[in-house]
Amino acid sequence: MIGAFISFLNNTLLNVALPSIMADLHVDTATVQWLTTGFMLVNGILIPTTAFLIQKFSVRRLFLVSLGLFTIGTILAGFAPAFSILLTGRMIQASGSAIMMPLLMNVILVAFPIAKRGTAMGMLGLILMFAPAIGPTLSGWIIEHYDWRMLFHFIGPVAVIIFFIGFFLLKDKKEKVNIRLDSFSVVLSTIGFGGLLYGFSMAGSVGWSSPQVYLTIVIGALSIFWFVRRQSTLQQPMLNFKVFGYPMFTLAAIIMIVINIAMFSGFMLLPIYVQTLLGISPMNAGLMLLPGALVNAAMSPITGKLFDRYGGKILAISGLTIVLVTTYLLSNLTFETGYYYLMTVHAVRMFGLSMVMMPVQTNGLNQLPASFYPHGTAMNNTLNQVSAAIGTAVIITIMSTREKLYTNQLIAEAGGQPSAEMQQQISMEALLGGINDAFLISTFVIVIALILAFFMKRATPSDDNIKIGTGKPIKSKSLETR
């Protein structure tokens, strides 16, 4: 968990530092964005392979390899003399980070009995939310007082210490497992998930009509279709899609996809709104979002214990209701909306999300038999990556489309030739309208997740030797060889 904490913290540390890196290494905005896009792509490409890695290797070996890669990437990036070296270090970091999250979730599923699993997942949620929460604020302080390289120099020594502690304390041993990785599946997975992530992540900046968007999305979708078909024919699939034969896991996956698409409206739109329309500084914008992230982090262990006691359904319905109401409130923003009002609404919204994210995922994973845990955690993390990219692209597209529509309407109302001063006012009003409409669409998306939550049932582990959906024994030794 300590290793995962610095890994997740690193994900958001760099965002505030991008302007400083641009100036120091003499690169433009499109180039420097690859520090974020490249990190996301490496994660999306490697996470699907983690099911195989967890089955093949011991926790000790995977932990040391993942943290070792992360440490090497951090040190390389910190001393990078050119942007290409910095990007290389960043992508090596990502290769270690991609293994860490599914590995940690699998350890929790194996190490804790089902009655205590919610509490353990709640602690994981604390790390997941607290690390990214303090990232932008900590980064802003470091950039204000030191060079951007200090972001890596700060993380590097901590990573080295954790690596050596893990080297001496972790004693996990694993018998040799006779399992081979299908290389063609890796190629299809890389092209498929990499194409989808790249296409959707670029849609917000270059538009949906760009060939690099729609071609990569189409190629990615076709590759994933081929990848899924191939997994069904393999005796030892790289990523076993039979996890979707378990109804509670499938329901949890759908709810999480819907939530990821909707929740990124707050993360993307609120900073745009407060900085562009209200004139609030980036540092204060980050501070405005901080209480919500801290509330989410603090609530994670509590909701974990509540999950163990009451199950996920009541938590999901209550949380999604709160998210629904607060998202609707954010669809009625004005030029006079107060700073502390936004802070409060965002904090309450994140409070609602804390009752949804981990309980829904844990309930879904609880229905899987132990042999499917690596595939379930890898599938969840892959879907989270893809749906987050899709959500960001869709929300930005809705905002931009509605902004253009409002601009044309307001120009027509002004007689077709507004003055320079009026043009500025029109652009601000159009942007406000686009942001409000994007939040409104997010509200309707959350309604879908809320309806689905009513179908949740408290899940219990399934037997490997029970045929999915029938409760009847099957003749083969395991579901994976069936």
TrEMBL record:
Domain of life per record: Bacteria
Topology of the protein relative to the lipid bilayer: Multi-pass membrane protein
UniProt domain Major facilitator superfamily (MFS) profile: residue ranges: 1-461
Localization per Swiss-Prot or TrEMBL: Cell membrane
GO MF term list: transmembrane transporter activity
SUPFAM superfamilies, sorted: MFS general substrate transporter
Family stated for the protein in its record: Belongs to the major facilitator superfamily. EmrB family.
Name of the protein: DHA2 family efflux MFS transporter permease subunit
Organism: Oceanobacillus piezotolerans
